[in-house]
Write a structure and sequence with these properties.
The chain has helices spanning about 5-30, 45-60, 100-110, and strands spanning about 40-45, 65, 80, 85-90, 115-120, 135, 135-140. It is α/β, with parallel strands linked by helices. The N and C termini lie far apart (about 40 Å).
Length: about 140
């Protein structure tokens, strides 16, 4: 077995372990917070889908994927899946400057003006970086 294969395999294994640990943390967080236990999940990007789909499946929640601007796709819409009509939560890996969260909310509101983001759930260990709220929306992390 070549060194590069070992390195790639090890790196992929660590990503899978990290994803599984993130999923376990998200399941725990959802079980502790009844205010969003039954709300639809909104995600964007590959990392959001990697955690969002298993979480939605496990908890039997609706899920919506917001396509990032410039994503190459055959889809005709910016949103795929369930489009929230009321309260929803965003599941994301981290918040840098808040652009992704604001873009997600804007895309959802364009299709469903009465939709309301009630929380942002972050799943990366180093995700907080000083954020407690974004535009008045609470940020949850475990």
């Amino acid at each position: 077995m070549s060194t590069s294969f070992k390195t790639s395999y090890h790196s992929a294994s660590l990503r899978i372990i990290d994803r599984d640990m993130s999923l376990a943390r998200m399941l725990d967080l959802y079980s502790l917070n009844s205010e969003f236990r039954q709300l639809p999940i909104v995600v964007t990007g590959i990392s959001g889908m990697a955690i969002g789909f298993p979480l939605a499946f496990k908890l039997q929640l609706e899920i919506c994927v917001v396509r990032k601007n410039g994503d190459s796709t055959n889809a005709l819409r910016a949103l795929e899946g369930y489009i929230p009509q009321g309260d929803f939560v965003i599941l994301d890996d981290f918040i840098g400057c808040g652009t992704t969260v604001r873009t997600i909310i804007s895309a959802i509101k364009k299709e469903s003006p009465l939709a309301n983001c009630v929380g942002v759930i972050l799943y990366r260990l180093d995700a907080m970086d000083g954020w407690e709220k974004i535009d008045g929306i609470p940020i949850y992390y475990r």
